[in-house]
Structure formats: C-alpha cells, structure tokens
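User: I'm curious whether this sequence folds into something compact or stays loose and floppy. Could you predict its structure so I can see for myself?
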Amino acid sequence: MRDTKESRLLLVLLVAIAFALITVDIRGGRNSPVDGARQAAAAVFGPVENGLSSAVDPVGNAVSAIRDADSRHDRLATLEKENAALKAKLGSDDRNRSRLNQLDRMLKIAGDGQYGIKGAQVIAIGAAQGFSWTITIDAGANDGIRRDMTVLNGDGLVGRVTTVGPDTSTVLLANDPDFTVGTRMEGSDELGFASGQGDRPLRVELLNGKAEVKKGDRLVTFGSEADRPFVPGVPVGVVSRVDPSNGGLTRTIYVTPYVGFTKLDIVGVVVQAPKKDPRDEVLPAQPKPVPTPTVTVTVTPSADASANNQQQ
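Assistant: Here's the prediction. I'll summarize afterward.
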C-alpha cells in the first residue's frame, strides 16, 4: 500500500476500532458481545495453532490415549499401558523425562480424586485472546470439552475452560484478576473465595472473620453446583500471609498457588466429576519434619589443670 493521506487515515481508523472492541470485550466479561466472534476465531485459527505444535512426540501419543478412553476404569487401564510404553520410548531425553514426570503426577491426582480427565498440551499463551492470563490447549469440542470445565495438572488447579473451538480451547488461568473459585481449608473446613492477582499470591476472603488460620495451611477447591465450573478437592495452594483480624465479617489471607502458571505444558480437563467429594485426599503428602540434631559437648580437663588439682 502506498503511503498516502488516505492510507494513513484508514490505519488510524482501524486502530481506533480495535481499541473500542477490546474495551467492550473487557467490560462485557463472560457476557461480552464479541464472545461469538472469539469462538469463531477459535474455530478458524485453533487448527493452525494445533498444527504448529503437532510434531511427532511420544508424550503427545500418551495424552491422546487419555482422550480416547470411554469409562474411568478403561481410561486408567489404557493410561497405565501407554505410560509403560512411553517410559520405554523416552530413554534419557531430559525434556521428555520432564514431561513424563508431569504426566505421571497428573494421573496420580486424577486417580486420587477419581476425576475423569481428558489430557491436553498447551500450544499457545494469552496474546491471541486479549490481555488476560490464558492458555490455548489442543483439545476442543471434538474431544468432549465444554465451557466451564475444571483444568488441572500434576500440581493442582490450573483454571477453567472459557472458549471452545472444534479442536482447541481457551483456559482462563487461576491467577487472572477475573478468576474466582470457592475454597475450603484443610482440617478446619473454613470456606472462602480465592481471586487471582497476576504474578502475586491469590487473595482469599474467608467467610468467617474470626477464622483461625496460620501460614502453611492448605486449601482445595470447594466445588460448584453440578460440578461446573469447579469440581471439589483440587489442590489450590498454601497460605503464605495472614492479614490481622479487624473484627469484620470476612478475613483476608494470601495463598501461594501450587501451580506455576508461567511453565505449563501438560494439563487435564475434568470431563467427569468424582462420585463423592475427595475432601483433602488429593493434597500432597505433608513433608516429615527433620529432627534437630542434639549436640553434646564434653569438656576434657587439660594436663596442667589436672596437675594443679593434684598439688592442691
């Protein structure tokens, strides 16, 4: 295009329209008037992102196996076979060993919580979806993924599905400022609501303003009605700071999430909720305290001191 007055005017107009659409989208939230266009974009561009990430990969084959199983029992049996075959294929490759470890830990969480999951890989991060903390995964409507499903990995809660295309989906991460999830504290069962704060710890408002809570306490998801968007019992994080109680109706605490949102690779979408609440069973085992060594000091008298005592 030639650099003319008309072309510059057209560029300014397009930029203005783009900023207007972004503003409308952000203010609209889940009821955004451009949600339909975003879903259409996911249908068009999702396969392109998916194709760019589909290099031959033994871990990808294992993830596909998670998608293809019909029942929870058959799914776990298939995964065990694929996992054993995968270990034989991976050899000493450091990257694949790391991804296999992720897969192992995710399957353990799914087994402990009795979640039916569809495995997926992260193929893109948020820029294509706006200014939110989001990821794109290579599983969509054709794999049984629906909007408002829980997403987890081998560490805990990753987020929830917000937009679904035929072969890809967008996941809003738990650290996004627009993300909120009901939580339950291990042991005390104190309930609250956790909200994302970007790269800072999650902010949790406990419903009991006088709740007894301390650093190191752990939280899981409380669960939603009909298990959408959140199933119960998924590990959320560990209390890192507690604001002083001010006598209000709620109490604020800050929680370091289990999941590292900047290094996501293999995730699982919960397509089948557990028959009963797993409570705290999915939380990692508490580290055993290391005993403090006891040092005993024995004083041995010197030869000079012994001689002086004899003379006396």
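Summary: The chain has a mean pLDDT of 79. The helical segments are 5-28, 35-52, 58-68, 72-90, 94-113, 303-311.
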